[in-house]
Specification:
7 strands; alpha+beta; 263 residues; five-stranded mixed β-sheet; globular
Amino acid sequence: MKKSGFTMIELLVVIAIIALLMAILVPSLSGTKHQARTVLCRSNQRQLSLVFSIYQQQTGVFPYGFNDKGFGLTMTPPPNGYAGDGSDRKGWWWFNCLAGLTQISLKPGSILWCPSRGAADSKIKTNILCENYGVNRSICMDAQGSSINHVFVGKALRAEEIRRPAGTMLFGDSGYSVLSWMAAVNTGGVPFENVSRIKSFYIPGLQLNQTRNELTTKPDALRGRHPHRMLNLVFADGHNELRPAEFLGIKRSSDYPSSLWAP
């Protein structure tokens, strides 16, 4: 009687077919996973834009990007303690202001943390300031006295001070919690007063990052946050868009600050 079962050749053919199917499906599944994270990121930002709107309606102004002086007054630490680690400045960041009014969570996994962040360094992984979302410093200014760079120091802006709210970015995917047009143009350097965080001050996926030596080990900066170097952005009127990183770039020095960045 003929024995049933696979011959060695048949077994090898089956293994080869399975390997071929895996080679086809794995990249597809990986791409679907990245797309899902992009959608979740966009959902986070939509919810966060509502929090900004509530804050602005209740206070009459947008939150400061950073404040450690309070117009010359000594400030108490935020309820949850200072954000960041020893490399970050101590003060109230924009999300501290939002959390104080709306009770949003600052813990990993909340709407303040991008699900597509690719932080590899152990300190960065637990640092809410890095590789999540950053506010436009031209809108969420630094409080007077809290910044060395006076371009972004001033009183908190009101919504009516933004001339083109539908075309001016409020916040979006960012290397650091605050961002400005200075990271979008090749000025021969990136002026940023917190020198220890210069490696985090970037727009994810921007072509200009390839020329910055300090970013050679930052996948988020070089390859981008989302598939095809796309970024999730929220504008001053509250709407959300998925745009290529180069949308935030500034081609000529004479173009900045553009209406996209300037209120």
